[in-house]
Amino acid sequence: MAQLALLLIFGFSSSCNGYFVYLNRSGTISEIPSNIPTNATKIDLRNNIISSFGPRAFSNFTSLLMLEASENPLVSIDYTAFEDTKIDNLILAYTQLTQIPDLNAPSLRHLHMQGHPGITHVDFVHLTLLYSRLRLLNVSICSINYTRWPENTTEVTIKNFDLTRNDLNTLSNGAMNSWRRLSFLYLEETGLSTFGCSYINDTELIILKLSRNHLTEFPDLQCVGQTLEILGLARNLITAVAKEDFRDLVTLVSLDLKANRISRLDEPLTMDEHHFNAQIRQDKEMEHKKVSESCPLCSISREFIFHADTASHLSTKKLYLCKAWHRKNQDGK
Ligand SMILES: *[C@@H]1O[C@H](CO)[C@@H](O)[C@H](O)[C@H]1NC(C)=O
Ligand SMILES: *[C@@H]1O[C@H](CO)[C@@H](O)[C@H](O)[C@H]1NC(C)=O
Ligand SMILES: *[C@@H]1O[C@H](CO)[C@@H](O)[C@H](O)[C@H]1NC(C)=O
Ligand SMILES: *[C@@H]1O[C@H](CO)[C@@H](O)[C@H](O)[C@H]1NC(C)=O
Ligand SMILES: *[C@@H]1O[C@H](CO)[C@@H](O)[C@H](O)[C@H]1NC(C)=O
Ligand SMILES: *[C@@H]1O[C@H](CO)[C@@H](O)[C@H](O)[C@H]1NC(C)=O
Ligand SMILES: *[C@@H]1O[C@H](CO)[C@@H](O)[C@H](O)[C@H]1NC(C)=O
Q1: Atom 7, ligand 6: which residue's CA is nearest?
Q2: Which ligand 2 atom minimizes the distance to the CA of 18?
């Protein structure tokens, strides 16, 4: 009952496993409330009117793991604001910051900075040295048009990186080569006209999303052929797809090529060398059907969706690659 009363009066809620959460999204808070217990592990001040976090603003919260302060009109955060905390997850989406803040927060592993039209420059060399344990970085929906990249030099721990909707246009050679743990890379709508292994060599990409860019060729992704499972290339300017493009992508299970300018296909696009079986069907009816007719053992996860806008821009073709089916057939022989 005492906890319920606290919850009603102050917006506290606590759980029995050692976590203490403070939450107040009232839209009226302009500075950190003085009644937050110092044992708080999570502080949620989303949607308020805080404009800055000063020196050692959170230092009394020595158990603090997570701060959610999105949708505040923040313009500055002091370098020492999180000193002496255990901050692991910092969620600062849609504020008025114009730079990714420099913080003394060596334990930080998740940094969510999406939704900052004021952020135009990011020095990833500096950032990855400062936050040397970072695993997730989200800087989508910003206006980043100038970047500096580590270029093969330092070991970077980032696993999940979202740069969707920025104004990059190009990446420098070797940009993410040293990001050896990079598994999930989102680069949609960033103005890229080229992409390939010269930026991500030595990574372990599982998901790569490159939709809504200006790519004219199927990217060379041979360096991640042993790990890549999902590849999104929709809404680019790719004009041709060939067998060779897939040669090394042995773990791929999902490919989206819809709304490109493909006028040439190796038809049928069979990939026998790599235990794929491919069939192209032009009838619209097939669009929502599973591949069971041609490929009884394929599950939906083995279905490749392939919309090729032909020169006439009329017919939609679907390509189904049935890895499991073909492998089974081969093994059976
Ligand atoms: C949130 O903070 C405001 C301003 O301090 C306070 O008036 C309000 O009661 C708080 N709401 C909750 C649910 O704690
Ligand atoms: C944190 O402090 C509050 C209020 O002082 C107390 O009710 C709660 O039990 C404490 N929680 C932990 C995990 O120490
Ligand atoms: C931190 O705790 C000290 C001692 O209880 C107190 O004087 C100070 O005002 C607190 N600082 C903040 C930022 O709450
Ligand atoms: C990054 O933020 C955007 C916008 O909130 C969200 O849609 C996306 O899923 C986030 N990406 C990651 C990797 O968390
Ligand atoms: C980046 O965008 C800002 C704001 O639109 C502009 O002032 C600046 O010149 C641009 N910089 C580059 C390198 O394009
Ligand atoms: C990083 O590697 C790429 C090739 O992957 C190379 O083109 C570039 O020159 C290298 N950069 C540095 C600074 O060594
Ligand atoms: C990727 O790295 C390997 C060796 O680590 C090297 O042989 C190859 O040239 C590199 N490829 C690119 C495109 O940088």
Answers
A1: 173
A2: 13
Token readout for 46 is 């989303």
> Cβ–Cβ contacts within 10 Å for residue 148, how many?
14
92: β partners: none
Q: Is 140 in the pocket of ligand 4 (CB under 6 A)?
A: yes
Res. 190 pLDDT band, cuts 50 70 90: very high
Write the DSSP symbol of residue 264.
E
- Quickly count: other Cβ atoms within 10 Å of residue 201's Cβ: 18
Residue 130 CA: distances (Å) to CA of 31, 36, 109: 27, 29, 11
Q: Which long-range contacts (C-beta less than 8 Å, at least 24 apart) are formed by 34-37?
A: 35/10, 36/61, 37/12
Summarised one tens digit per residue, pLDDT across range 257-312 is 777 887 655 544 433 332 233 333 333 333 333 333 333 223 222 334 443 332 22
Instruction: Kindly list the protein residues whose Cβ atom lies closer than 6 A to any atom of ligand 7.
Output: 197-198, 201, 223
* Residue 142 identity: C
Task: Give the residues surrounding ligand 1 with Cβ less than 6 Å away.
Answer: 10-11, 24, 26, 28-29, 33
Q: State the Cα–Cα distance between residues 323 and 3, nearest whole angstrom.
A: 55
Degrees to nearest 5, angle at CA 328 with 323 and 330: 95
Residue 322 has pLDDT above 70, yes or no: no
| Type and span of the H or E element at 255 | strand 254-256
The rounded distance, in Å, linking the Cα atoms of 279 and 9 is: 63
Q: Which ligand is nearest to the CA of 177?
A: 6
Residue 195: how many other CB atoms lie within 10 Å: 24
How far apart are the CA of 151 and the centre of ligand 6, in A?
6
End-to-end Cα distance, the chain: 70
d(CA 112, CA 8): 29
- Exposure on the CB side of residue 267, measured as CA atoms within 13 A: 13
What is the total residue count of the chain?
Answer: 333
